[in-house]
């Protein structure tokens, strides 16, 4: 009888993907964290040129130097992080960056604080490394923000790392500067690493993004191109950390992916060094959609916190599973909050990365549900 490795039995396939596969073709899918925009033309053109010139071979394991230099400049200018190109690895999406960070850091039994509710990959990534998950409970009363006080109350002498995600999936909350700074100090004082997932950095409507990496060398900064430049299919992201950590991560990356796709690296380079208008245009459209969803949810008298960033809203209903099932029956796919952790129970997540027209129709359908 087939016996898979025990580590695989510790984790399950994503509920979000499973639901997506179940639904009818004409359903409106508000379950995926995927911008519906086309990748900007200049990026696609740069890839075509690279393809025609035969840029189809392996690249250095850490990624092409031009891209790492561009990332290094971006981190310095925008995030106030000092990371030279040798301290950066270009990865297969932010997903791989998360995986290699955790693989390089976590031993069996090490405690890792993960936001609850939080992005669905954190829990399985830690489990695959045999780490011990410690949910850091985020509360609606506090707009689902992670605070330095929450961290102080939850760390122990076994805490090895804390995962931060601001702006956050699934809540759209944005952490405040003093908390980022405070958590960076806690990390320094207690020799804890901060794995900072900054994939929604540019999708922010209120507040400002601060990277923990500007305050501490214990930060591992993870970012990517999927959300900011509508490049999910390119599978390209990066991680920056102090050199000794990067060298360990590189081993995992080298034997896992070897390098990110050469053409996707060209796409990433053009994204960072080409015109940036597309970022603002997409942000404006996300904001328009957010305002629509907020207005409609208010009219439906559903309780929720208006998201300050990312493209999700995380409302509360009495029986969220029942609500999600009713929505699916009406042809709107949304995700039950429990999938994001215990504190997500009684909530559901709407991704408003779909078109305005689809969102309008979806909100009409949700409005017709009796709750
Ligand atoms: N982090 C968060 C919080 C996300 O929501 C996602 C994508 N849903 C990722 C990381 C992964 O992004 P990528 O496409 O770059 O792997």
Topology readout:
Elements: H1 6-9, H2 15-22, E1 28-29, H3 41-52, H4 65-79, E2 88-91, H5 93-105, E3 111-116, H6 122-128, E4 132-137, H7 148-154, E5 159-165, H8 177-190, E6 193-197, E7 219-224, E8 237-240, H9 243-256, H10 262-273, H11 277-299, E9 312-313, H12 320-329, E10 332-333, E11 335-336, E12 348-351, H13 356-367
Parallel strand pairs: 1-10, 3-4, 3-5, 5-6, 6-7
Antiparallel strand pairs: 2-8, 7-8, 9-12, 11-12
Helix pairs in contact: 3-10, 4-10, 5-6, 5-9, 7-8, 11-13
The protein binds 4'-deoxy-4'-aminopyridoxal-5'-phosphate.
Write structural notes for this entry.
Helices cover 41% and strands 13% of the residues. It has 371 residues and is of the alpha/beta class. The protein has a seven-stranded mixed sheet with strand order 2-8-7-6-5-3-4, with helices on both faces. A three-stranded antiparallel sheet has the order 9-12-11. Strands 1-10 form a two-stranded parallel ribbon. The protein is globular, with a radius of gyration of 20 Å. The protein starts with 5 loop residues before the first helix and ends with a helix. The mean pLDDT is 95.
């Amino acid at each position: 009888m087939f016996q898979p490795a025990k580590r695989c039995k510790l984790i399950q396939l994503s509920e979000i993907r499973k639901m997506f596969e179940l639904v009818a073709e004409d359903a409106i899918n508000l379950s995926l964290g995927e911008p519906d925009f086309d990748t900007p033309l200049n990026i696609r053109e740069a890839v075509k040129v690279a393809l025609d010139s035969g840029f189809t071979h392996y690249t250095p394991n850490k990624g092409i130097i031009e891209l790492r230099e561009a990332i290094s400049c971006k981190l310095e200018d925008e995030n106030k992080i000092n990371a030279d190109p040798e301290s950066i690895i270009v990865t297969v999406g932010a997903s791989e960056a998360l995986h290699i960070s955790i693989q390089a850091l976590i031993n069996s039994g090490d405690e890792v604080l993960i936001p609850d509710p939080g992005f669905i990959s954190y829990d399985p990534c830690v489990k695959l490394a045999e780490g011990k998950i410690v949910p850091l409970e985020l509360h609606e009363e506090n707009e689902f923000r992670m605070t330095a006080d929450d961290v102080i109350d939850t760390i122990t002498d076994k805490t090895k790392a804390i995962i931060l995600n601001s702006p956050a999936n699934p809540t759209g909350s944005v952490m405040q500067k003093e908390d980022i700074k405070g958590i960076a100090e806690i990390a320094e004082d207690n020799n804890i690493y901060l794995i900072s997932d900054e994939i929604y950095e540019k999708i922010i409507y209120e507040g400002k993004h601060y990277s923990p990496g500007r305050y501490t060398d214990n930060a591992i900064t993870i970012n990517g191109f999927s959300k900011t430049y509508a490049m999910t299919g390119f599978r390209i992201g990066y991680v920056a950390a102090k050199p000794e950590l990067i060298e360990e991560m590189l081993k995992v990356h080298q034997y896992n992916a070897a390098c990110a796709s050469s053409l996707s690296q060209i796409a990433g380079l053009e994204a960072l060094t080409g015109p940036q208008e597309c970022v603002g245009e997409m942000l404006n459209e996300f904001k328009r959609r957010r305002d629509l969803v907020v207005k409609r949810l208010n009219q439906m008298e559903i309780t929720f916190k208006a998201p300050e960033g990312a493209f999700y809203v995380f409302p509360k209903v009495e029986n969220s599973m029942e609500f999600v099932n009713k929505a699916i029956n009406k042809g709107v796919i949304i995700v039950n909050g429990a999938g994001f952790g215990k504190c997500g129970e009684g909530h559901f997540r709407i991704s408003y990365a779909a078109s305005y027209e689809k969102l309008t129709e979806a909100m009409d359908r949700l409005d017709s549900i009796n709750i």
